[in-house]
Write a structure and sequence with these properties.
The chain is mostly beta strands. The chain contains 3 helices and 13 strands; from the N terminus they run ββααββββββββαβββ. The protein is elongated.
């Protein structure tokens, strides 16, 4: 069960005829890839239980947000325990959509070895308020914390309206017709979409 191939559509999923009837989904530790369209349409899914580690879950390479079962269940259990406090300790990559819409996720801590965080990796997590990142990330994806309390909390931004995690520029606040921002010396990485909702000219 380690190398499932992606399906071209939900019609090819082995769950196609029972997708709307599935309410709980358990994924074994030996699984290394969740194929595209396998979970598409699991509209009544309420629980996803992964029998591996949270670090390994972060390595699942979802093609789209709807390929991640968390999108439907709105939660992730790791070996039966609801994930609220996420600590990445042993991998250097968190793939796109990895924890997208994980409603129970409140805190995220990432180690010094994270080299890449994929697009929307922690986006739309309605309880996510605290993020700790202790080193610079070489590749920051698009809007990795979009639509979370963390990104919406004005107290997390400096006086110029910029949100940093260490030397990583994560987001800016769109202050009406504000056309420029002062970037702190030493800033090494800028997240995709960090300046999307403003009138930036310089």
């Amino acid at each position: 069960a380690k190398n499932y191939k992606d399906f071209s559509s939900s019609f090819n999923s082995p769950f196609y005829y029972i997708l709307s009837k599935i309410t709980s989904f358990t994924i074994g530790n030996e699984v290394e890839h969740i194929p595209a369209y396998l979970c598409y349409g699991m509209s009544n899914l309420t629980k996803v239980n992964y029998l591996g580690t949270v670090d390994k879950w972060g390595k699942f390479d979802f093609k789209n947000y709807y390929d991640n079962p968390i999108y439907y269940a709105k939660n992730l259990y790791i070996n039966g325990e609801l994930l609220t406090d996420l600590k990445i300790t042993s991998v250097n990559t968190i793939k796109k959509y990895a924890f997208y819409k994980a409603s129970s996720l409140e805190n995220v801590t990432m180690n010094d070895y994270i080299g890449e965080i994929g697009d929307y990796a922690f986006a739309s997590c309605p309880s996510l308020e605290s993020v700790t990142l202790t080193d610079t990330v070489e590749n920051l994806g698009w809007e990795i914390f979009a639509d979370t309390p963390f990104i919406n909390n004005t107290n997390n931004y400096d006086n110029d309206g910029v949100l940093y995690l260490n030397y990583n520029l994560i987001a800016t606040q769109p202050f009406g017709d504000k056309e420029s921002y002062n970037i702190l010396p030493g800033t090494e990485a800028v997240a995709g979409g960090a300046f999307e909702w403003n009138s930036l000219k310089k």
